[in-house]
Amino acid sequence: MKYEVFGIKKDIFSIIVILAFIGFLVATFFLQYEYFFLTRFVSLIFAVVYLVIELKKEYFSSHKPLYILFSVVSMLALTVSILLDKTFGTDEFNARIFYCLIFMFCLLVISYRDLYEKNNGAK
Fold first, then answer.
1. Which UniProt keywords are given for this protein, alphabetically ordered (predicted)?
2. pLDDT in tens, 34-54
3. Three-state helix/strand/coil letters over 24-63
4. pTM, entire model
5. Which of 49, 6, 5, 58 is nearest to 25 (CA)?
6. 4 - beta bridge partners?
7. How far is CA 39 from CA 77, 92, 99, in A?
8. 3-class secondary structure per residue, 57-122
9. What is the domain partition of the chain in residue ranges?
């Protein structure tokens, strides 16, 4: 089922959002390079991989365990990178940074639901 967001098809809108996020992450390396360097680097890697997943949605909709495994690995890597940045960083501990994990988990659930609907719609 295709629907439109702001006059753009949903698949194209998802790709535009991921590309905007990648652009934002690249810009943060130039704006505040000393804070959360490892977390931003890990997020950039996974954003590029999720862009590939979005482009190859047909493959990942038929191989859902691979997508779930990648999602778990990305959540664990992001958690470890946040902990390392907070441990070796110069700023004080702020628990709000862990909202990034909740936000990422919500995005993964939405993305998995899209893969599930694509697979069920193809049958």
1. Membrane, Transmembrane, Transmembrane helix
2. 677 788 888 888 888 888 888
3. HHHHHHHHCCCCCHHHHHHHHHHHHHHHHHHHCHHHHHHC
4. 0.69
5. 49
6. 9
7. 9, 16, 13
8. HHHHHHCHHHHHHHHHHHHHHHHHHHHHHHHHCCCCCCHHHHHHHHHHHHHHHHHHHHHHHHHHHH
9. 4-122
Vertex 40: Cα angle to 34 and 45 (nearest 5) = 145
Amino acid at 57: K
Residue 120: which pLDDT band, with cuts at 50, 70 and 90? low
The distance in angstroms from the start CA to the end CA of the chain is 13
The closest alpha carbon to 21, from 60, 49, 61, belongs to: 49
Q: CA of 77: how far to CAs of 39, 65, 80, in Å?
A: 9, 18, 5
